[in-house]
Amino acid sequence: MKESKPRRNVFHQLFFAMIAFGLFIGILFPLVARTVLHTEKAFSAQFILLCLGAGLLVGLVNHLLFHLVISKELGRIIRGMQTINKDIQSTFGQQGSCDGSCELEVRSNDLLGDVVTAFNRMGRNIDKRQTRERQLRELMNALSKNVDLASMGQMILSHIPAPPAWQHALLYVLVDQDFRC
Questions:
Q1: How does DSSP assign the chain, residue by residue?
Q2: pTM surpassing 0.85?
Q3: Parallel, antiparallel, or unpaired: how do β-strands 173-175 and 178-180 relate?
Q4: Distance between CA atoms of 13 and 71, rounded to whole angstroms?
Q5: Among residues 102, 171, 94, which one has the least CA distance to residue 130?
Q6: Closest-CA residue to 139 (of 122, 162, 156)
Q7: Cβ neighbour number for residue 18 with a 10 Å cutoff
Q8: CA 15 to chain centre
Q9: Residues 6 or more apart from 139 whose CB is under 8 A from it?
Q10: Is there a contact between 98 and 127 (Cβ–Cβ < 8 Å)?
Q11: Residue 74: CA atoms inside 13 Å, Cβ hemisphere, count?
Q12: CA angle 31, 35, 40 (to 5 degrees)
């Protein structure tokens, strides 16, 4: 099934909003200039066009600056996600994991910073799960090749995460209708 992309483009909406705001200020400024400077030249076509041009230019520059900063940060986040995705898609049997190389530096104290923080948390969780799955696969491979109950018990215990001090584990094995420790 083909995944459809949303039609909404925040950057386009922001572009039009910034241009509209710049033009609004360009229209409003001659009224302010007339009131403050007390001159009829504020309503001349030349001055009104100059104000509209300045408002348009400010809107364009604001959008360009915003787009450059946000696009740079989003590109960085996307590249980090692609790194994690490549790691997930690679063979689990490989010993290499992210080892912190998938962590991105949080560079802002805003929503984009929150996105990076959430991304880092997601990456750590994926890395932990991937490591645990690899360990369990190794255990299952070792158990499938082993028939000695004592060594199987040792292997299982070595792969069980260490319990807190208040918990204890005991492995019972059924041998000839008799439980043994």
A1: -PPPPPS--HHHHHHHHHHHHHHHHHHHHHHHHHHHH--GGGGSHHHHHHHHHHHHHHHHHHHHHHHHHHHHHHHHHHHHHHHHHHHHHS-TT-S---TTTT------SSHHHHHHHHHHHHHHHHHHHHHHHHHHHHHHHHHHT---HHHHHHHHHHHSPPPPTT------EEETTEEE-
A2: no
A3: antiparallel
A4: 15
A5: 94
A6: 156
A7: 21
A8: 24
A9: 155, 156, 159
A10: yes
A11: 9
A12: 75
Tokens (6 digits) for 143: 């158990």
Tokens of 11: 């950057």
Q: What does the alpha-carbon distance between residue 104 and residue 124 come to, in Å, rounded to a whole number?
A: 11
The CA distance from 48 to 41, in Å, is: 9
- CA distance linking residue 100 with residue 173, whole number of Å: 40
Q: What's the token pair of residue 85?
A: 């995705």
pLDDT tens-digit profile of 80-137? 877 777 776 664 444 445 666 678 888 877 777 778 888 888 888 788 888 888 888 8
